[in-house]
Amino acid sequence: MTSTDARDTELAAQYEAYPYPERDPREETKRLLIGSPSHLREIDYWVFGARRPRSQPLRALVAGCGTGDGAIMLATQMTCSNRPGEVVCVDRSEHALKIARSRAEARNLNNIRFIQGSLTDPETLPGQFDYIDCCGVLHHLPAPLETLKVLEQALLPGGGMGLMVYAPYGRTGVYMVQEALERLTPFSESPSTRLDIARRVMRTLPATAWLRENGNFGDHLTGGDAGLYDLLLNPRDRAYTIGAFLDLLAEANLEPSCLMEPARYDPSLFLPDPKLRARVEKLSWRQKAEVAESLTGNMATHVAYVVRNGSLPTPPDCCDPATVPVMREMPGDELAKQILPNSTLPFSFGTLTVPVPLPTQARSILPLIDGERTVGAIAAVMQERGLSERKFFTVWAELFSRLESLNRILVLPPA
Fold this sequence. Notes:
By secondary structure, the chain is an alpha/beta fold. Helix content is 39%, strand content 17%. It has helices at 6-17, 40-47, 69-80, 94-106, 144-153, 174-184, 191-203, 210-213, 218-221, 224-232, 242-251, 274-281, 285-296, 332-337, 362-365, 375-384, 389-405; strands spanning 58-63, 85-91, 112-116, 129-135, 155-166, 254-260, 301-308, 325-327, 344-349, 352-357, 409-411.
């Protein structure tokens, strides 16, 4: 059943006038935008447990593709790694689809196609999929749960999704300015008029405005007309605490296989006091995540990979000698250079940087991870350098666990 209202009509007009994010197809020759969800190595690991063969075709849906960041990234990664399959992009904005299509053409991608239609109409979706991306969409819809249930029904057995929704505490200041602008320039006015008023407000925003203190929105505030409109003038903008997000997933028969990055939701990482850590350890997984969100205060989004309830993938054995570890994106030798003399890795969760302790041997091990060597082969190299096999696997288990929780080391699935 189609679900729309007046604000949804205004939302459609917004994205037709100012497709988001603002992208120039000519820049496709210079860069590939990388992020989460829908990074191919993340999908392999967090959705399929690094067990789905790379030779098996992947049918992916990008539900609400906008101007195409996630879709272009995934289709490009599939092409560059000779992975069979197709990326189907659905969006109701003709203008946004035109930009996304031009970006795909600039990259000569032949594994991607585009469909104009609304996610609030189940008949829009062409069949079922191994993987569904719905990033930055649900929180703008009139009936998020209704749409999420439709997407869940479109999953093939064993499939999963990559989702992103807004979070409230890290968006402090945004909703205050939104409320003011709704009064200064109501939704009944044209998008161009509303944008003009927003720009005038931002030029003279009082020094005490909380939005000035929030460093989470540089991409929006410097993202041209589309970025500013999406941040401050969007007619519907829900935010979910992590608890509310988990409840939404449960109502749609889904559960997270990963909250991105997992360590971000572990308060013991930034609570060094032993008495506090002891109390944290008594909390449930959900309670830990809720404490982390409340204390850090800077989570502006929640990104998750999810599967159907009861279908969590079994994590691969990182200490199996035949396992092939792979860096998610940054090469191992580059990550090793960031490790401080005290064997801690400064890691940024948005605007919060915390020291992550690593084994002292991390600097020597990380450059050996090339996506081809097995753990057994890495162990043999380290044994030649004086680290016994038994000691190596103790160190490796700790190193993998820490960097997996940061989404930096994953496992390559079988060919």
